[in-house]
Amino acid sequence: MSTKKVAVITGASRGIGKAIAKKYAANGYNLAICCKTNSDLLKEVQEEILLLGADCICFTGDMAVPADVKQFFSEIYNHYSHVDVLINNAGISHVGLLTDMTDEEWDLIISGNLSSVFYCCREVAKDMINRRCGCIINISSVWGTYGASCEVAYSASKGGVNSFTKALSKELAPSNITVNAVACGIIDTDMNSHLSNEELSSIYEDIPAGRCGTVDEVANTVYSITSQSTYLTGQIITIDGGWF
User: Fold this and answer.
1) 200 or 40: whose pLDDT is higher?
2) Which of 84, 137, 186, 209 lies 20 to 30 A from 238 at CA?
3) 82, 8 contact by CB (below 8 A)
């Protein structure tokens, strides 16, 4: 069995998750990646990872559904036996007025962005505690701290991720396990494709860096946390070009 470290990345079929997966593969990790529906895209990511010399297993399922999460991690532990790094990246967005939001839309956002983090962390925590090592990184958003108009559910879910991160870090620190979050500003991904060029230009005027971030910049930030001292834990690390 390989002695390589193992990283699990959820929501890895494109965007930030794909960039993170390739970053870890390029730095000697074996991978387990998943997505909710885009099986073909996920397999393309798997092929790119294999070309980088890493092993990679992939899974299509909803990390907001406990049964899917259990199946994913069962396959991971059967294949690799352990997990060194968990990166909770899977998530969805919703833009619209609070008064127009349905119960189903609210539940979808909260479960997709927050409950999924709980389910995945629960699956790796026991093994990491037994091994007295591990690193968990949750992908969050600046809106989890500052809130965004017409994104109440998304902002609430990411605020929950931030609080979850801080609380779990205290719980797991005695076992030498770190838990941090990376709060992203405007990143060039499909999630922001609903913004027009005019809207983006207006946003850029408020960002000191004058642009949106790239998925590779996020991936580099996430990977750098992995190599830090275990004294870095419970932090919400913001990457937003100086926006907030």
Assistant:
1) 40
2) 84
3) no
Among 54, 74, 63, CA closest to 108: 63
Average pLDDT, the chain: 96
Determine the straight-line distance between the first and last CA of the chain, rounded to whole angstroms.
46
Structure token digits, residue 162: 């931030």
By the 10 Å C-beta count (0-12 exposed, 13-18 middle, 19+ buried), 104 is classed as exposed
- The CA distance from 136 to 175, in Å, is 13
Dist CA 17 CA 51 (whole Å)? 18
Q: How far apart are CA 197 and CA 8, in angstroms?
A: 34
- The first and second tokens of residue 45, run together, are 């990511």
231 is catalytic: no
Return d(Cα 8, Cα 120) in angstroms, integer.
Answer: 10
Q: Which position among 80, 154, 204, 231 bears the catalytic label?
A: 154
Dist CA 64 CA 70 (whole Å):
11
| pTM check: above 0.90 | yes
* Span 29-40, average pLDDT: 97
Q: Which residue has the tokens 């690390």?
A: 237
Q: What is the side-by-side strand order in the sheet with 85-88?
A: 56-60, 30-35, 6-9, 85-88, 134-141, 177-184, 236-239
Amino acid 1: pLDDT? 55
Q: Convert the pLDDT of each residue in 57-92 to its tens digit.
A: 999 999 999 999 999 999 999 999 999 999 999 999
Q: How far apart are CA 14 and CA 120, in angstroms?
A: 19
Read off the pLDDT of residues 216-226 as tens digits, 9 standing for 90 and up: 999 999 999 99
